[in-house]
Design goal:
9 strands, alpha/beta, globular
Length: about 210
């Protein structure tokens, strides 16, 4: 497994961040680092995402920052140029995945079905996103589809929160969970970074409780 992806396993919960204004990037990164989750998947669906990644990677080089909701190879190129150290996509686009593999960029594509998981394995991947986790059957579904694919690890994202993250983290095939509950858009927009830090600490404490 790629060294960057191994860090996901140590962090346990990857904050999934939507930023509408790049000015919020640095205080948010500070809150996540202080809270004990020095990682952010910045979704590439807003105009501010590229600059936010650039600011975080420069000011907080110790932080593992990447781009999420990546749909095209052009977005991969822009995200990596801005400082993204990993790429996450909602689905499995072979063109995007191969582009990342060819350039040794860690990539975690979204999957939901055995066919998509086999495709990921065939491309040489050993970590996939399971999305949207809760609507697609949650941990029960992951355990059911994981059985035949003994080398595959999962990063479930979608509908995961402080109430159900523990059961996901207890399953040894879960590398990490993606979650946005500690970095909700309204908290970021209101500048409530102290509250974000507190919620991040709660999430980090949960990881420590489950994984030591």
């Amino acid at each position: 497994m790629n060294a960057v992806l191994e860090q996901f396993g140590k962090i346990g919960i990857v904050p999934v961040v939507v930023l509408d204004d790049a000015k919020d990037a640095e205080p948010l990164a500070e809150a996540l680092c202080k809270g004990g989750l020095p990682c952010a998947e910045v979704t590439f669906r807003t105009a501010a995402a590229e600059e936010a990644i650039r600011l975080i990677s420069r000011k907080y080089p110790e932080m593992l920052v990447g781009a999420g909701t990546v749909l095209t190879t052009g977005q991969v190129e822009r995200a990596v140029a801005a400082g993204a150290r990993f790429i996450v996509s909602p689905g499995l686009n072979p063109k995007v995945v191969q582009y990342c593999i060819d350039r040794k960029i860690p990539v975690v594509p979204g999957t939901q079905t055995p066919s998509e998981m086999e495709q990921a394995l065939d491309m040489g991947l050993d970590v996939v996103k399971f999305f949207p986790a809760e609507p697609a059957g949650g941990l029960k579904m992951i355990k059911a589809v994981a059985a035949p694919y003994t080398t595959l690890k999962f990063m479930p994202t979608g509908g995961i929160n402080l109430n159900n993250a523990e059961e996901y983290l207890q399953y040894d095939r879960i590398l990490a969970c993606g979650g946005s509950w500690m970095v909700k858009g309204d908290l970021v927009a209101a500048g409530k970074f102290d509250e974000i830090e507190k919620m991040t600490k709660d999430a980090a404490a949960l990881v420590k409780k489950v994984r030591g």
